[in-house]
Amino acid sequence: MTTTKKRMLFSATLAAAFAIPVAGARADEFGSNTPYYEDDAWYDVSEWFDGNDYNPTDEAIGRWDDEVFDFADNATSTDSDNDRGLFYGDYGYNNDSESESDWFYDYYDDGYSYWGNRYFSNYYDTNDDGLYDAYASFIDTDGDGFYEEFNYYAFESQSEGQDNSKEQAKNQQKELESQKLSVSGNVEETKTVQVRDREHLVAMINTKQGNSLAVDLGPTQKETSVQKGDQLTASGHRLKVGDKSILVASDASTKNGSVQIDRHGKKYEGTIEKTKTIDIRGVEHTLAKVKTADGKSMMVDLGPAQNRQAKLTDGEEITVQGVPLKVNDRVVLMARKITQDGKSTEIDRQMPDSSASTS
Q: Which residues form the Magnetosome protein MamS/MamX domain (predicted)?
């Protein structure tokens, strides 16, 4: 496989932000970038699609409209859900950004990062085509605050930039800390920030220690009511984006109660057309072909089959939330949460050789 050197701004800035030597970390153990899906299993499943049921990545997941990817179509499409990486890079300001709002960027890429109990995972767009095509997970096996275990998986086996992306992920293993940070202070400003295919609410708070810190409160929702002047308490993990720090909150509250933070990804409703169980690295996963409300089909990886109590039935209504990935020339939604008959289940994507919490 040939690779070219690619600028991974977001990952690089993370590495620069946490330049902390890790005593005892197994830095010599570097995860393999073997494909997450085995070719035989993947191409067998892909035969489900015919006609216009499946289409390449010139439109948003769940509503593709032709069989041929064309860069000109992609560049002029009114759909911008998957185009952020092509035109804007990993963080920055819009051209019409007002100077008084430059305390944080107008857009950035969080890699759909997830922290669990001594666990961190992150997705990467190695070729800046607007879709993630690699994944890394990190485990703090002994609870010392640092990640000793590292795994890296490629979804797009021929993607340029995999080597550079993998090296940046390896650096994160040595430099990120697993403990949560808790802060409390007065909200000085708020703004809506584009984070890939979502809009997040970001608040700048003046902490009790006299420091200012930007806090990402997740995708904007009607229930989220955080305003200038509020007292905000938040906990999460801090990232460095460009020359700015941001706390990616997992929990937050004001005097009015808890702030609802949902980081499971974009939500799609549809009907299960077909399911198939395949082996992924020793674990049986369920893949589903789901027809969305507009009549288009999408492929969904529903995660390890043993994690779900409810049985999946053809024709059943289902709601899925997750991360859109590019697997060779196909797009797959990597589900993080599914809802059946009003009951929701979070997907456990823990690798079998690890012992921490879910991703």
A: 267-343
DSSP label of 130: S
Do residue 269 and residue 338 come from a single domain? Answer: yes
Output the 3-class SS for 155-181: CCCCCCCHHHHHHHHHHHHHHCECCCE
| Whether residue 285 sits in one domain with residue 230 | no
Phi, psi of 263 (to 5 degrees): -110, 25
pLDDT string in tens for the chain (359-residue length): 433 333 333 333 333 333 333 333 333 344 556 788 888 888 888 778 754 444 444 444 444 444 443 333 443 344 444 433 333 357 899 876 566 688 999 999 988 988 888 888 889 888 877 788 898 888 899 999 888 888 888 887 666 677 777 877 877 676 677 888 999 999 999 999 999 878 999 999 999 888 999 999 999 876 667 999 999 999 998 888 888 989 999 999 999 899 999 999 888 899 999 999 988 888 889 999 998 877 778 899 999 887 665 788 899 999 999 998 888 777 889 999 999 988 998 988 766 544 333 34
Q: With contact defined as beta carbons under 8 Å apart, do 319 and 338 qualify?
A: yes
Residue finishing a domain among 239, 258, 277: 258
Taking the C-alpha atoms of residue 140 and residue 23, their distance in angstroms, rounded to an integer, is: 13
Domain residues for the domain of 233 are: 181-258
Identify any residues that bridge with 199 across adjacent strands, giving them in sequence order: 194
Taking the C-alpha atoms of residue 13 and residue 233, their distance in angstroms, rounded to an integer, is 26
From 174, 256, 181, select the one nearest 211 (Cα to Cα). Answer: 181
Residue 307 covered by a domain: yes
Among all chains, which residue has been given the structure tokens 């720090």? 245
* E strands in 220-316: 231-241, 244-254, 257-258, 266-280, 283-292, 297-304
Residues 95/160/132/85 CA torsion (nearest 10 deg) = 10
In a domain, 329, yes or no: yes
pTM of the model: 0.77
The answer to whether residue 203 sits within a structural domain is yes
Indicate which CATH number applies to the domain containing 243.
Answer: 2.40.50.140
